[in-house]
Amino acid sequence: MAVKMSAQELMDFMAREFPQVKNDFIVEDVRDMGVTVRMPVADRHLRPGGTVSGPSMFGLADCSIYFAVLAMIGPKGLAVTTNCSLDFMRKPEAGRDLIAECKLLKLGRVLAVGDVLIYSEGKPEPVARATMTYSIPPN
């Protein structure tokens, strides 16, 4: 299956369809069955103790899978999360952006399953891992 949306097309889609989060994530790379997404960490993402909050990391993981699915199927705004498992493994650093490396494991007619590893920029060990399932709307 060929990639149907570029990084810029995904960003333009988000600006149109989800303007409330259009500046929260940057699609840096799109490839067959995967994407790389950056979340510029700001004060609003932090929790006490100087770490990035769980909800912020969930948002990054969720949007990364969404971007990967749309990159493969095209601009279908009604694709939705149906399941999520998120493991927090290390404390992300407050002064570093988060980088999500997403890979789709299955892309079917109705469901897509993907894995996301989240890193603090410049650090080799992941800070979180997510597995998500998305429901794909009918054509």
Automatic annotation (TrEMBL):
<dbReference type="GO" id="GO:0016289">
    <property type="term" value="F:acyl-CoA hydrolase activity"/>
</dbReference>
<dbReference type="Pfam" id="PF03061">
    <property type="entry name" value="4HBT"/>
</dbReference>
<feature type="domain" description="Thioesterase">
    <location>
        <begin position="49"/>
        <end position="123"/>
    </location>
</feature>
<dbReference type="InterPro" id="IPR029069">
    <property type="entry name" value="HotDog_dom_sf"/>
</dbReference>
<protein>
    <submittedName>
        <fullName>Uncharacterized domain 1-containing protein</fullName>
    </submittedName>
</protein>
<dbReference type="InterPro" id="IPR003736">
    <property type="entry name" value="PAAI_dom"/>
</dbReference>
<keyword id="KW-0378">Hydrolase</keyword>
<dbReference type="InterPro" id="IPR006683">
    <property type="entry name" value="Thioestr_dom"/>
</dbReference>
